[in-house]
Predict the structure of Pyrroline-5-carboxylate reductase.
Amino acid sequence: MSNTPLSSASQAIVFYGAGSMAEAIARGLIASSAAKSEQIAMFNRSNTERLKQLEANYGVVTAADAETQNELLSKAEIIVLAMKPKDAGAAIRRLTPLIQGNQLIVSIIAGLSIPTIQSLLGDKLPVARTMPNTSSTIGLGATGISFSEEVTPELRSRTLSIFEAVGMVSVIPEAQMEILTGVSGSGPAYVYYMMEAMIAAGIEGGLSPEQARELTVQTVLGAASMMKQTGEKPADLRKAITSPNGSTQAALEVLDQYRFTEAVKSAVHRSASRSQEMGAAIEAELA
Ligand SMILES: NC(=O)C1=CN([C@@H]2O[C@H](COP(=O)(O)OP(=O)(O)OC[C@H]3O[C@@H](n4cnc5c(N)ncnc54)[C@H](O)[C@@H]3O)[C@@H](O)[C@H]2O)C=CC1
Ligand SMILES: O=C(O)[C@@H]1CCC=N1
């Protein structure tokens, strides 16, 4: 792996975990010039092929051996916890002795609370708990962020600049992080699920797969952009499409028969409660 040193360890952002979310954020940081490639380091558990690919694509620093990884962690200005919740316990246990006390911990792990992170890594450690989404990959992410009280205004704006580089940011109290996960963290998956169904129905009705896909994509893009650009309420935009006794009304009646609103609301709340469960599982493992 790369022997290139980080340009300045005091400004380094180290991604502890080099999966899809870590890549999305690193890519956005570089593309928006919020950080230089040589300020970003990434490593994973064992996939050296992936690290080579990340190095080649983005020019970031990577490390395959434990010693270099530990050095990166202990020197980083910002450590981004970017592993799956099931791997967080072991990863945090390894990190605990390496923490220097003045580093910012940024977690993107669903469910993992600020008090849990601080109780393991240091009570006074500044922590930003975040929940991004996969649209960060193309700079259209939506990220929720909660800060511990130790985060200084400077670190706060540094964290905001990281996530603003990949989309919009909403700063929220930590108590709202689970419901935000249900809305925007998991949210893209519900939209894709609906798009899969629209495409399937279009094909059943005789459209080619390409036509069904293109029409569905443009429909969702157009609907989201309409809401954003006009600032109108979705209910009003919906009503404007729904002619009395027309085809849209007939379609919405079918959705109502299947209790569409209840289904979506229950899904959002279930994502939130599952996020809480995953956090509790990490806590139990580390207790
Ligand atoms: N995928 C999504 O839509 C979102 C994911 N998240 C959160 O982001 C986190 C990561 O998710 P993904 O990027 O999708 O996962 P992923 O599976 O693509 O990546 C996880 C990475 O962590 C590494 N890893 C695991 N244990 C490690 C260890 N002990 N030492 C070093 N590296 C280790 C893996 O090797 C891998 O590179 C999760 O905690 C998830 O809750 C947050 C928002 C959205
Ligand atoms: O499904 C998950 O657990 C993660 C958190 C939000 C999106 N993906």
About this structure: The mean pLDDT is 95. The longest strand covers residues 141-147.
